[in-house]
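User: Teach me something about this protein's shape.
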Amino acid sequence: MAVNAFGLGAGLQAADGGIVVWGLHEMMGWEAGRPHGPGLHEMGLAPSDVLLVRAPDIQTLLIIGEEALRTPAVRAVLLSAWGEAKALSLTASRRLALAAETGGGTLFLARAGAAPAPSAAETRWAVQAAASTPLEGGAPGRPSFSATLLRRRGGGEQRTWTLEWDRDDRSFCEPTPLSGAVVPMAAQRSAEAWDKHGRHVA
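Assistant: First, the predicted structure itself:
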């Protein structure tokens, strides 16, 4: 799922070689698919890069987030949640923000199958998969995302970026413009193949 891949990439960038904890709501795994080893490898990840913790419910997911964020050794936390949940309240997001300030890490909360809700997040994003730029010979390109900044604390206008994940540099970059011959559309991955639920990363 695009929102998890984007959040994981953002977490790796923020951690800058440090520990990343990924708290995964079990419902997210059932609805959107569980982490797949070969897929993570294609993103340039090794098993030692991420500590995956499964949560049976949202309350447990929030506890995982708070405990991980209060640990100075953890540099980034990704919490992946599915569906509407009263537990994901403004108060809960403030507790997570305070825990992040205490430990010095960065939190990314990825939600799917839910409408945007008030939170203490610095920014709120809408993320979905985008068509990737094919490589030479029609080979599949890098994972590509359309990321829209919906809200920034302190204000600012809405803006959308198309970003690719560079597995070698472990960073997001803007697509390189195509040059030369036109590549057949069949060689591109269509965003329409992804799930239609809204995706939000905060």
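Now, about its shape. The radius of gyration is 17 Å. Residues 2-201 form a domain with the Rossmann fold fold (CATH 3.40.50.300). If you'd like, I can walk through any region in more detail.
User: That's plenty for now, thanks!
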